[in-house]
Amino acid sequence: MEKAEFQLPQGTLQLQQETAPAGPPLIVVAGGRRPDPQWLHTVGRLGTVIAADRGADHCKKAGILPRFLYGDRDSAAPGAWEEFLRRGARARTFLVNKDDTDLSLVFQDLEPGPPVLATGIWGGRADHLFGNLYTLLAYARRGGTVILADQQELLCYLLPGTRARFTAVKRPRAVSLLPLSPECTVSIHGVRWPLDQAPLTQANPYAVSNKQTEASVEAESHAGTAGLYFTWKE
């Protein structure tokens, strides 16, 4: 089993899976809820930054320079892309009338390789969040390692055989296991209500709003696909 590690301001997440790559992550900044600028500035120093359309605005607010820009530029503030291009960023632009989201265009170009931290994913419209969740899940199913994170929320995909360990600097308000396939078998420890190879289905997604009780939370999918979710939202 290979291990990927993400050092976040709120704690350290380790993922063990057959294809988990090591090394610095790619930071993909999408155009959803703006990450806290200090949080993004901290994680932006971990690896190469890619901005998807309005994600360029988030990068500018955080004072970080993306290496690559993707999108149709229909939502980025005027001047943000031009500033980054002058400072050496490279861009791929697309027509506004297209079938793909700006985030999906980024991941169509990414072959599974370095671990990916995707931010600017949360908040806003439910259909956008749904599209983001399943765009990134498709990348994980291709063999990539990706997490969705900002200062308020964190989710990692537990494909069959994947183990996760989260060691908190700041304990989350809630921990949940979300079934992302019709049925899955999961374990979780370090929480008030542990599970050991328990069935979890989309028809009865009962494993929500758990509480971390130990220094670390450990979870695993034995069959099917689940999402391990943490929230610090008030």
Short description:
The chain is of the alpha/beta class and 234 residues long. The protein has helices at 37-44, 55-62, 80-86, 102-109, 126-141; strands spanning 2-8, 11-17, 26-29, 48-52, 68-71, 90-93, 116-119, 146-149, 153-158, 163-168, 174-179, 183-189, 195-201, 216-223, 226-231.
Roughly how much helix do the residues carry, as a percent range? 10-25%
Sequence stretches where pLDDT stays below 50 over 5 or more residues: none
Write down the secondary-structure element order.
Answer: EEEHEHEHEHEHEEEEEEEE
Strand order of the largest sheet: 6-5-4-3-7-8-9-15-11
Strand content: 35-45%
Number of alpha- plus pi-helical segments: 5
Backbone CA Rg: 17 Å
Mean pLDDT: 90
How many strands in all?
A: 15
Kindly list the characteristics that best describe this protein:
about 230 residues; alpha/beta; nine-stranded mixed beta sheet; six-stranded antiparallel beta sheet; about 20% helix
Task: Compile the SSE list and pairings.
Blueprint: E1 2-8, E2 11-17, E3 26-29, H1 37-44, E4 48-52, H2 55-62, E5 68-71, H3 80-86, E6 90-93, H4 102-109, E7 116-119, H5 126-141, E8 146-149, E9 153-158, E10 163-168, E11 174-179, E12 183-189, E13 195-201, E14 216-223, E15 226-231
Parallel strand pairs: 3-4, 3-7, 4-5, 5-6, 7-8
Antiparallel strand pairs: 1-2, 2-10, 8-9, 9-15, 10-14, 11-15, 12-13, 12-14
